[in-house]
Amino acid sequence: MLILKDLDAGGWQFATARTSRKGRELAENPRAALNFYWSELGRQVRVVGSVVELSAEASARDWAERPAADDAANPAWQLYALRPTEVEFWQASADRHHIRHRYDNLPG
User: Residue 43 and residue 56: Cα distance in Å, rounded?
Assistant: First the structure.
Protein backbone atom coordinates (compact mmCIF):
# COMPACT_ATOMS: atom_id res chain seq x y z
CA MET A 1 0.00 0.00 0.00
CA LEU A 2 1.31 3.42 -0.94
CA ILE A 3 0.27 7.04 -0.50
CA LEU A 4 -0.75 9.09 -3.51
CA LYS A 5 1.69 11.99 -3.19
CA ASP A 6 0.51 14.29 -5.96
CA LEU A 7 -1.41 14.36 -9.19
CA ASP A 8 -0.49 16.60 -12.10
CA ALA A 9 -0.08 16.58 -15.88
CA GLY A 10 2.98 14.34 -15.44
CA GLY A 11 1.05 11.57 -13.71
CA TRP A 12 -0.16 10.16 -10.41
CA GLN A 13 2.84 10.32 -8.04
CA PHE A 14 3.85 7.79 -5.38
CA ALA A 15 7.14 6.83 -3.75
CA THR A 16 8.96 3.80 -2.43
CA ALA A 17 12.55 2.59 -2.08
CA ARG A 18 14.07 1.28 -5.31
CA THR A 19 15.39 -1.62 -3.21
CA SER A 20 11.91 -2.61 -1.98
CA ARG A 21 9.91 -5.37 -3.65
CA LYS A 22 7.78 -2.77 -5.48
CA GLY A 23 10.88 -0.86 -6.56
CA ARG A 24 12.54 -4.00 -7.93
CA GLU A 25 9.36 -5.07 -9.73
CA LEU A 26 8.95 -1.62 -11.30
CA ALA A 27 12.57 -1.75 -12.52
CA GLU A 28 11.76 -5.02 -14.34
CA ASN A 29 8.27 -4.05 -15.56
CA PRO A 30 7.44 -0.33 -15.35
CA ARG A 31 3.63 -0.74 -15.43
CA ALA A 32 1.27 -0.57 -12.49
CA ALA A 33 -2.30 -0.14 -11.34
CA LEU A 34 -3.49 2.14 -8.56
CA ASN A 35 -6.70 1.23 -6.76
CA PHE A 36 -8.70 3.58 -4.52
CA TYR A 37 -11.57 1.87 -2.68
CA TRP A 38 -14.19 3.40 -0.39
CA SER A 39 -16.20 0.49 1.03
CA GLU A 40 -18.62 2.69 2.99
CA LEU A 41 -19.58 4.50 -0.23
CA GLY A 42 -19.43 1.46 -2.50
CA ARG A 43 -17.05 3.28 -4.82
CA GLN A 44 -13.73 2.47 -6.44
CA VAL A 45 -11.36 4.11 -8.91
CA ARG A 46 -8.71 2.06 -10.73
CA VAL A 47 -5.92 3.69 -12.73
CA VAL A 48 -3.59 1.67 -15.00
CA GLY A 49 -0.54 2.84 -16.90
CA SER A 50 3.18 3.06 -17.39
CA VAL A 51 5.46 4.21 -14.58
CA VAL A 52 8.44 6.55 -14.84
CA GLU A 53 11.02 7.51 -12.25
CA LEU A 54 11.02 11.18 -11.38
CA SER A 55 14.20 13.19 -10.76
CA ALA A 56 16.64 12.61 -7.93
CA GLU A 57 15.86 16.15 -6.73
CA ALA A 58 12.10 15.46 -6.60
CA SER A 59 12.75 12.16 -4.79
CA ALA A 60 15.01 13.85 -2.21
CA ARG A 61 12.42 16.59 -1.66
CA ASP A 62 9.70 13.96 -1.14
CA TRP A 63 11.88 12.10 1.38
CA ALA A 64 12.58 15.33 3.29
CA GLU A 65 8.85 16.16 3.44
CA ARG A 66 7.91 12.85 5.08
CA PRO A 67 6.59 13.36 8.64
CA ALA A 68 8.96 10.76 10.11
CA ALA A 69 11.97 11.74 8.00
CA ASP A 70 15.18 12.49 9.80
CA ASP A 71 17.88 14.79 8.43
CA ALA A 72 19.66 11.97 6.63
CA ALA A 73 19.14 11.49 2.91
CA ASN A 74 17.86 8.19 1.60
CA PRO A 75 19.52 7.51 -1.77
CA ALA A 76 17.25 4.51 -2.41
CA TRP A 77 14.06 6.61 -2.11
CA GLN A 78 12.37 7.09 -5.48
CA LEU A 79 9.42 9.23 -6.51
CA TYR A 80 7.50 7.68 -9.42
CA ALA A 81 4.69 8.89 -11.66
CA LEU A 82 2.07 6.58 -13.14
CA ARG A 83 0.94 7.89 -16.52
CA PRO A 84 -2.59 6.56 -16.98
CA THR A 85 -3.69 4.72 -20.09
CA GLU A 86 -6.90 3.44 -18.45
CA VAL A 87 -9.19 4.73 -15.70
CA GLU A 88 -12.22 2.88 -14.38
CA PHE A 89 -14.89 4.21 -12.04
CA TRP A 90 -16.95 1.56 -10.23
CA GLN A 91 -20.12 1.96 -8.19
CA ALA A 92 -21.60 -0.88 -6.13
CA SER A 93 -25.23 -1.88 -6.46
CA ALA A 94 -27.24 -3.96 -3.99
CA ASP A 95 -28.55 -6.14 -6.84
CA ARG A 96 -24.92 -6.81 -7.88
CA HIS A 97 -25.44 -5.04 -11.23
CA HIS A 98 -22.53 -2.75 -10.48
CA ILE A 99 -21.95 0.31 -12.62
CA ARG A 100 -18.60 0.67 -14.38
CA HIS A 101 -17.34 3.53 -16.49
CA ARG A 102 -14.04 2.67 -18.14
CA TYR A 103 -11.93 5.02 -20.20
CA ASP A 104 -8.99 3.47 -22.04
CA ASN A 105 -6.46 4.32 -24.72
CA LEU A 106 -5.63 7.47 -22.79
CA PRO A 107 -2.38 9.14 -23.85
CA GLY A 108 0.02 7.92 -21.22
Answer: 35
